[in-house]
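Hey,

The postdoc asked me to send both predictions to you directly instead of through the lab channel. I've kept everything plain text so nothing gets mangled by the mail client. Protein one:
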Amino acid sequence: MMKYGFVRAAAAAPGLRVADCGYNAQQIIEEATRLAQDGVQIALFPELSITGSTCGDLYLQQPLLQGALQGLEDVLKATSQLNILLAVGMPVSVSCKLYDCAVLLCGGRILGVVPKQHMEADRLRHFVPGCGNHTIVLCGQEVPFGTRLLFACSNMPELVLAAEVDTDLWAPAAPSLNHAKAGAPLILHCAAGAELVGKADYRRTLVEGQSARLMCGYLLANAGEGESTTDFVFSGHHLIAENGKLLAETKLFSGQAAVADIDLQRLCAERRGSNLFAANQAGYQVVSFELKDTDTVTRTFPQMPFIPEDKAEREQRCASILEMQAAGLRKRISHTNCGKLVIGVSGGLDSTLALLVAVKALDSLGRPHSDLLAVTMPCFGTTARTKGNAERLCEALGAEGVACVGRKIVLYRESKEKKTIELPKK
């Protein structure tokens, strides 16, 4: 629903066959078509998804590289009429060097090629790290190639995205840091990480943390079914996060896609309110594309957005709020050498919270609850229930209670000002 600042994004890993580029391309086409029919506008596929990420020394063979190019061309033609931007992974040979790349395409056009920058040891046998920006010819098109590319939607200013590949995220200075500083509120991450015990939790924490640090939407698509299991297994664990909150996650080995509506207007608003994102597009090339508006959105929002739905999290949140308020009051009590705390108690929520905070502050100072003077002020709108609540609350907390008849005070003020008031009928 782009006109309201939402973009529907998906991370998917359709089943593949290692080194069978024609089959893999067809799987990507079918998945992209299905996602587009569901209103998805951004679809991310794993690292080396056209060839498979476990081809080993076959990456050095010309037939595989040629097959990957043909597979890309098949995807390009078959998805040219779809209202969707795709990011697929494949090896790309440039000047007799091989790069592990994310290729972005939309409307039959290759938007750009983003090479992986940080290589694990086993990948260095076949690939070289990418750096800088230049232009290459791919599938008969002149295409931007480089590590500093931004992709901007011409009819939705908030939709600016960038890409990184696999271990780029794990590096001390991930490329997504520069992408975000350059103005990208959406990061696409093609991955092919082997599954290990505890790694899914670490991956989730990493994605949530990166999206929070960068105030961005972050998509991660991980390799899954069909990869070789000679050395490792691949779970197809996909994640979508927005500003530190996980929006969608797939179960390990489920073969499902993760789909979520990302609120880009909210992300841009958060960044505008921060002085940490000074624009820095030095060295970046911006590539434009266009997507049609859609009116499909399935994201739901809680009726009480500031109150956690999980009971344990809610209790922890309430305890933190109470501690913070008590800490502030404790400082004021100490600073002013206050002997007695005086608080008006109505029996309602506001005064009850204030009373609890005051008791907490006295406890932390080691002072008795009798140092708290709770004043009840029944007036025209006071009911027996709220008055009883106030009295029982003071008694339960050990506060000294004093009743002050609010009705008389109001009538006295009105008589002095020579005004009349209407008393409620009994």
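Protein two:
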Amino acid sequence: MPRRWVEPPEYPVIYEFPKVSAVVSNFSFRDMMHILTYTSASVPFGYLAGASARVKGPAMVVAALTGLQAGYMVAYIYSKGRLMGIFPNDDEVARLGMSTMSIS
């Protein structure tokens, strides 16, 4: 059983222990933009890291995949935090028709 948070959540809890499928299906447009931004911002670093013309292409691919993974992790953290009531979750609460009263 996962450990509980030390402090109670500030916002309404939708899922106390959300599964991966619930977290990924809760990705918002902003979360998708995190993934896109991290991926596209990492490509120039891969180009600059490539020492020769022969290495620049593979270095850009590796950097893009690294950025994709970083963006996915950031989006996952925000999505899971909204479901657990750690981050503001007004959209999720409204979509599910829950009360917007914060937990005391």
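Summary for protein two, as requested: The chain has four helices and no strands.

Thanks,
C.
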